[in-house]
Amino acid sequence: MQTNNFKILFALSFTVFINTISFGQDIPKKPKPIIGNPVQDTLAINANDIKKEKDIEISEKNQDSTVTDSVKPKELLEHIVKYSATDYTKFNQKQQKLYLYNNASIDYGDMNITAGSITIDYNKNTVYAKGITDTIEGYTQKPVFTQGSNVVEPDSIIFNTETQKALIYNSKTEQGEGTVIASITKKENDSVYFVKEAKYTTAEDLEDPDYYIRLLKAKIVPGKKIVTGAAGLYIYDVPTPVWLPFSFFPQSEKHTSGIIIPTFGEQNSSGYFLQNGGYYFAINDYVDLAVLGDYYTNGSYGLRLESAYAKRYRFRGNVAFRYENLITSEFGFPDYAKSTIYNIRWSHSQDSKASPSSRFSASVNLGSSKYYQSSINQINTGSNYLTNTLSSSVSYSKTFDTEPAINYSLSATHSQNTNTETINMTLPTFQGSIGRVYPFASKTGSKKGIIQNINLQYNVTGENSITTTDSLFFKKEMFDDAKAGFKHTIPLSTNFKVFKNFSVSASTSYNEVWTFKTIEKYYDSVEGEEVTETINGFDSYRTYNFSTSIGTTLYGMFNFEKEGKDSYLKAIRHVMTPSISYNINPAFDKYYDTYEEEVITADGLTTTDVEYSRFEESIYGAPNKSFSSSMGISLANNFEAKVRDKDSTATEDKKIKLLNSLNFSTAYNFAADSLQWSPVRVSGSTQLFDNKMSVNFGATLDPYALDNNNTRINTFNIDNGGSLFRLTSANLTASWSLSSKDGNNKDKGRGSAAGSDNPEDVLPENLDFANEQIDRNQRDNRKNEEQEEENEFFNHKIPWSLRLAYAINYANSTRQNQISSHSLMFSGDIELTSKWSIGASSGYDLKNQGFTYTQLRFSRDLLSWKMNFSWIPFSDNKSWNFFIGIKSSILQDLKYEKRRQPDQQL
User: Fold this and answer.
1) Cα–Cα distances in angstroms (integers) from residue 247 to residues 164, 200, 231, 466, 687, in the given order
2) Rg (CA), the chain
């Protein structure tokens, strides 16, 4: 592949520019050194000299008489000093020193120091704190220095109360997401620290960090930044070649604008690239903006704008716009081409507390149909490659607290098929309704009878529907075939009971449709073809219908218990819900017209009448032309069993479901002159293996036969020499989810001590033995936990999960007698250790004999690091990706990533 040298030079120059303005070293002025002599405790402690006093306050004007000495300090302190110690507090009048020993604490202004031993020197205005040495535990009670929100944990510290400067030895202090471990720290003032021979890490184990960045010299401004000199990466105290002459670590606790460092690499068809680099704008506390770009040495480029916004107790959301200008091959080659793709995403959610009567929400994903397949940005690879549908919805709804309630909503929807590039939109859809009204119901008491249960509603829907293609999207041509209209519906219904056990419902509905476009058809004898003209203007039609249904519920119980025998199967309960419905739809042929069409037959040129409706291309279609009078029959079944519980302590039998549902339905059309019976539809579902496996099945049974042309005829299949029904289609789907955690709670709560809530039920009479046994169990549990924590290379439990899905479809509507689809899909994860896991997802097409989209995943938790490897072994998107990097967001750019791009397709 040829590349443009100038574009490569431009990319390298851009990288140097980014690095130049991203890193900086703030060189401080040479401070005046603070010389701190280590304080050696040479005092011989006499019991008569020890004054056991705690929380003694020394004021610059009025001192406690218990510690007042004839020799006054040289200088008065600025703040009140509060101090305490467990063993003793001793004041040396000659040296003007105060000694605090064991759990010593001192407060001075906003400063607090706790340590094993603290010495206050009034002559030098210094405070020296250190730990104490114990023959058993060693060096303990290390100092903790707190000033404001800054906390330092050193081995020892010397603090000057007058200049507020300090020398800190072997300190550990948190700075943002990381920790600075320094051998010597010089506190210049409240906002500036200088460190020497320091380590910066985000590891949890600070005694033995798995990695750190060695800082030879650094300046720390707490809550703002860390500026360093030479800095190098160490992994388990092993130096790496990664060194920088200077570096900058932002530590701001607020949103801060700054540069986003790009990633670099190579793409098969586009050359070398810089991706996802740009600038982050922290606009305010409610909204931000990230401007990111991509550049490739063959001339391709991309742009991304991302913004997130939020207001507490009101709303939150994010907006993203992605654009890529792609160049294929090299200029001058026959396969050279340019293309542009884009994608717009918007998500908005409203807090439920913001407005209880209205709600606004948005979920938008639209753009080029081939965006995810054609994009060469790393963030769009992977599972997005399989995306074949883009959909969007933006809606606003409002409810008025009236009687009856009034609701309305406005919405805009979008659906895009990325394979056919067909786009369907509604801009907008209006829906309004008035709540249910019972005009004949009494104001008090319940509604009884057919009259009191009469109720009606009012619903109105308005739509502006647009159907277009990807090439016309966002162009004025997309509105040429737009359809708009309104539909008004007033349903009237009632319900009542007959013969105590039968529920009857009856309803009628009045519908009125408004449209703003109709058509007119005529035959053009000159051209010899049908002509359709669009007529703009208001038009409407009205329809009505009637329906009623009756149903009941039947219960059957089959007992299998026999006297003197404890059988496993106790009983089976069968619940049946039969129902019969009747529907009548009048014919509205008055909305149909005819025109004469010339047809050439064997007898010559003749004319025939062609019937059409001027509403047939409107948004809600044409009204029903033919009269319909049909009866629907359905039967729903449910089967449950009562069995003996395996738990011998259970007091009741266990109930299990045999079939969640088994449904049959068909219909008979009284108005049809043939084929009056509809096919029988059978559907059902059940769950197996303690509800871990779900099974759904269905079938269609046609009572009519086929002729030699595979066309349905008005002859029953059994009269044509076949069976009672002809199986035309069938389907079966099953999904099974397995996990190693499923059996963990199987024995939980069983036994004496495991499941009892009352200690008196489980404690033996010998309490001493019980306490000894409890202590032994606790020690064993702690030992097991320690062994599990220490062992990260194996896991004897090995948690795992497996998800299986099976689907088969059978088609025989025209005697094809074939399996239309047959597939098995599976995915799973195995946690080899607490730090190491593998996973895979794939499927097998049993009909076409081939694997479907397959992905293998490997991940390793490296304490402060994470490592991932994903592999797509075959398909058009065959590729792999390896990543290792630091988890902390402050050092997320310290990573290594290598990927194999999909093969170039010719």
Assistant:
1) 28, 12, 7, 55, 60
2) 41
Q: Are strands 569-585 and 592-601 parallel, antiparallel or unpaired?
A: unpaired
- pLDDT tens digit sequence for 373-419: 888 887 766 556 667 788 999 999 999 988 889 999 999 999 998 88
**pLDDT in the model for residue 148:** 74
| pLDDT 10s digits, 630-654 | 999 999 999 999 888 877 777 788 8
Count of residues making up the chain: 906
**pLDDT (tens digit per residue) in 37-90:** 443 443 333 433 333 333 433 333 333 433 444 444 444 456 777 888 998 888
CA dist., res. 570 & res. 1, Å (int): 77
CA 460 to chain centre: 35
Whether residue 109 has pLDDT greater than 90: no
Helix (H) or strand (E) holding 169: strand 166-175
Nearby residues of 754 by Cβ (< 8 Å), 6 or more positions away: 747, 748
SS3 12: helix
User: How far apart, in Å, are the Cα atoms of 627 and each of 50, 269, 624, 631, 793?
Assistant: 112, 63, 8, 14, 76
Burial of 549 (0-12, 13-18, 19+ CB in 10 A): middle
Predicted pLDDT at 172: 85
Reference 630, options 711, 552, 549; nearest CA is 549
Split at pLDDT 50, 70, 90, the class of 655 is: confident
Q: How far is CA 622 from its chain centroid?
A: 43
Q: Is the peptide bond before 873 cis (omega within 30 degrees of 0)?
A: no
pLDDT at residue 778, rounded to an integer: 55
Written as six digits, the tokens of 539 are: 């038009």
Rounded Cα gap, residues 577 and 28, in angstroms: 86
Match 């574009």 to its residue by tokens. Answer: 7
Enumerate long-range contacts of 396-401, CB under 8 Å, 24 or more apart: 396/358, 396/359, 396/360, 397/358, 397/359, 398/357, 398/358, 399/357, 399/358, 400/357, 401/357
Rounded CA-CA distance 391/459 in Å is 26
| Residue-by-residue DSSP string for 434-484 | EEEE-TTS-SSS---HHHHT-EEEEEEEEEEEEEEEGGGTTSGGGGTT-EE
> Which residue, chain included where needed, has tokens 């319900």?
495
Among candidates 263, 286, 290, which has minimal Cα distance to 276? 263
Nearest Cα neighbor of 848 from 822, 878, 809, 874 is 822
Per domain, the residue ranges of the chain are 25-164, 496-508+542-678
Q: How confident is the model at residue 281 (pLDDT cuts 50, 70, 90)?
A: very high
How far apart, in whole angstroms, are the C-alpha atoms of residue 509 and residue 724? 37
CA angle, residues 180, 183, 189, in degrees to nearest 5: 70
Cα distances (Å, whole numbers) of residue 799 to 744, 748, 859, 870, 886 = 11, 18, 15, 20, 26
Q: What residues contact 560, with CB distance under 8 A and at least 6 apart?
A: 567, 569, 570, 571, 572
Beta bridge partners of 404: none
Q: How far apart are CA 682 and CA 662, in angstroms?
A: 7
